[in-house]
Automatic annotation (TrEMBL):
SHSP domain boundaries: 31-142
Species annotation: Pseudidiomarina terrestris
Protein's UniProt name: Hsp20 family protein
Keywords from the UniProt entry: Stress response
Gene3D superfamilies xref list: 2.60.40.790
Entry coiled-coil feature ranges: none
Amino acid sequence: MATIDLSPLYRSSIGFDRMARLLDSAMRAEGNGAGGYPPYNIEVIGENRYAITVAVAGFSDNELSIEVENGILKIQGRKEEQGEEPQYLHKGIGFRTFERKFNLADHVEVKGAKMENGLLTIGLEKIIPEAMKPRKIEIGTSLNLLEDSAK
């Protein structure tokens, strides 16, 4: 497994330690083969709007669950027991239990979900708070903070 040296990032950035943890967990997940089932797409819909589409053929709405906790979107699928198992000549459609997790960036909210033609689509939107939007800083003749600390 490859390692990534993030020390150049730390020299000029503050507060990106969460990014390092995300990269590390993504590298470990890929190494464990967790990226295969079920297949999914991540799509950019517009500015600050995204959609995750997961192929969940054979699962009904009540066999799927979607949760968001601590910035992690978790999608689970559990097939209900169906009494007697049909006898297959070939079984190529996997109805196995799954759990798929996505790390959400700060201020990304799940706006809804829909199921259509065996595809579960989850809408996401990044909502930037007013306090984080760019603002112009006026240049004045004095700065009380600097003057107070010099005393």
